[in-house]
Amino acid sequence: METFDLSSAEVRDLNRRLQMRDGDDGERQFRVLHPNGAHALAAGLTHPIDVTIEGHTGYYCAGMNQEATVTVNGNAGTGVAENMMSGMVRIRGDVSQSAGATAHGGLLVIEGDASARCAISLKGADVVVQGSIGHMAAFMAQAGKLVVLGDVGADLGDSLYEAQIFVRGTVASLGADCVEKEMGETHLAALKSLLAQAGLDADAGSFRRYGSARQLYNFNIDNAGSY
Amino acid sequence: MSNERNKSTTFPPRVISEIHRAAGEGIYEIRGGGAKRSVPNFDDLVFLGASMSRYPLEGYRERCDTDVTIGARHASKPIKLDIPITIAGMSFGALGANAKQALGLAATAMGTSTTTGDGGMTQEEREASKTLIYQYLPSRYGMTPDQLRQADAIEVVVGQGAKPGGGGMLLGQKITDRVAEMRTLPTGIDQRSACRHPDWTGPDDLEIKIRELREITNWEKPIYVKVGATRTRYDVTLAVKAGADAVVVDGMQGGTAATQDVFIEDVGIPTLPAVRLAVEALREMNMHREVQLIVSGGIRTGADVAKALAMGADAVSIGMAALMALNCNAPLYEEDYTALGTTPGDCHMCHTGRCPVGITTQDPELEARLDPEEGARRVRNYLSTLTMECQTLARACGKSHVHNLEPEDMVALTVEAAAMAQVPLAGTDWIPGSS
Ligand code: SF4
Q: Model's pTM, two decimal places?
């Protein structure tokens, strides 16, 4: 276990080390102290390492993550795990806007609440939120899954492509082209496995599933007002 | 019978036919290309060649350098180009793979850069291009950290001249299996791209985003910020404050593969005033030449290049003109232009995916009409011509580097151009708008 104290170390040096830019020396456990809301912490990681951040992080924590497991024992700012490719990011507290934006792969678990635009333009990753989330979640989401155990704000899944959304609480309103869909056996199984991966105890049968009505896929004059 | 006296200037035939079309179809017109309306442009400026008070350099003999370095402000590996003319961002998807490859090969041969577009980088493009700029767009289609690291510079696209404030479009005909897979989209859909980045909104956020991009790419890559020309003075100021190494300003004549006609014609300002506003902003911050200015939108000739540089740009970028070098709008396969309802010279049918000359298409049969090697030769020739024309003008003004051209070397032929470029109206010392 290697410890970085950001009250004295620079973010640039931390990331350089975590990205193994000077070679992989085999160390796999890292602990970061006093993050103090710094931005781009543990961004651009490429190795299967474990990083635990003790405190709150700023924007883009674990941005574009590949392979690594990053845990934040605190809250995270805008764009946590944005464009993640693989690996796992877990936030023990709440997160700000655009959590998991455009993420292609991996799993983002938010144990608290998430603000607006959670999972915006999602491209294949899975995002699981234990609390509630704000408006415009999964806007233009293309692939992957968004699971919310709490409630969801307005315009969920607006202009949705092929991402799947599962919600246990209430949904304030659905966005354009997002509809409730039947929960089939395969969906139920996928949801169960995702909840297990996220380490959350919830009955998959109590969720509702939402997806794209696919009415906006090809331009149609009758839908012009929804584009 | 139509009588000249009865013709309305409010409702000329073009407007009447658009009303008829709109009434029939109930939808705006979508097309490719840039603004076609007449706007003040570089043609409205002329150089004052050397005579008694200045002396020229000997054409062809005396050196007139053209190199430019971009991105030394913060990046540890700035871009070094032999000529100040780059190839603008155009996506694989909007363009076919052969066109992208031809542009990459030509840029490499000329010692300049080419640029990706929406949908990410193709391997063919990376291999063909020695210096490849990677666009970071609101949609982030196909954007991966590995591709960011493979790029030579990153261009954060806030907007483009053809549609400042709007997102991209790629109609279903062009979303083939390969394009769909690269963008994680269903094949054949009419793809819309977001107009706003998903994880940052204002300039303060952009500063943090740029820092993240630098952290992920080891502070090596120059980071450009591209804006469509609108409130250019403020946009350039904010981009520089956000930490950009270079700013790309794209005027309203800049092209697109597909956008609403009303956007192309009615949003944004021409390239001419945009260059001046951008240079003023850089000078006010003491950042002129420190942060490079790349100008695009309607650059066609070596004269346009020289005039943009004389106004203070460090480099220009060409898109539509490069496609024309690849035979866009050439009188070949005329029956295919006819089938699209157009003629060579008037074509803006890029959005249809049925490009008669094989450039903006994903159809293998049409694409085969563009041989990448032959296309590269034509683009190379065109870039050489632009460079030589630019050098000719610089030498005539007595400059040993094209960057030594300055506003003082030019006058304007119209009051509008004089006001926009802030150079005197020819034959006077009057600069409208300047006290
Ligand atoms: S010739 Fe091809 S590239 Fe040129 S405007 Fe027509 S469709 Fe577009």
A: 0.95
